[in-house]
Design brief:
Arc Repressor Mutant, subunit A; mainly alpha; about 180 residues; 2 domains; 3 strands
């Protein structure tokens, strides 16, 4: 997936300035597609040149003018074409998993602490997702068609973090059991 498609999805949901789009990435899309603010602005300029988005300059009192971007019909056509193409297989790269494989050769206490740190990270992200679900989707059984995609992505995040926490708990338990057996 190109960053262009992530931006098209976000702008199709709601027009935004580059700054607002970057903040939206930080708060939601950024959990599964990373992009710096500079990358977003660079890609927006290219997309505008390609005719996928257009912008309108909006004057602001006491602040510099801002450009608000909207998806054009060409951008919507590209977005529809992209959704029709099969998604390439996504390969997991995990330094954490490789580190676990190195357990017999490394510092077991440091690895245990890293597992605990990973677990805290997953618990924090899960709490954020739970809060988002309560705020944006208080009744998942009555979602509209327009809400379904966002809910399904959030649901995937919830399940991923719950699984990661269970995995960390299992790792810690097995490592503690192995240490007790020594």
């Amino acid at each position: 997936m190109a960053l262009e498609h992530a931006i098209l999805v976000s702008l199709a949901e709601r027009s935004a300035s580059g700054y607002d789009l970057a903040r939206r990435f930080d708060a939601s899309i950024g959990h599964f597609w990373k992009a710096s603010h500079q990358q977003i602005y660079k890609v927006l300029a290219r997309m505008e040149g390609d005719g996928w988005v257009s912008s309108e300059t909006v004057a602001q009192a006491g602040r510099p003018d801002k450009k608000v971007y909207v998806v054009t019909s060409a951008g919507r056509t590209e977005l529809a074409a992209w959704t029709a193409r099969p998604t390439a297989e996504e390969h997991l790269r995990s330094e954490f998993s490789v580190k676990l494989r190195a357990l017999p050769f490394g510092d077991a206490a440091a690895i245990v602490e890293d597992v605990r740190r990973q677990r805290r990270h997953h618990a924090d992200r899960l709490a954020y997702y739970v809060e988002s679900a309560a705020k944006f989707y208080p009744d998942p059984d009555s979602l509209t068609h327009d809400q379904l995609g966002g809910w399904l992505v959030l649901r995937g995040g919830l399940l991923t973090e719950e699984t990661a926490i269970r995995w960390c708990d299992e790792i810690l338990q097995r490592l503690l059991d192995a240490e007790a057996d020594r």
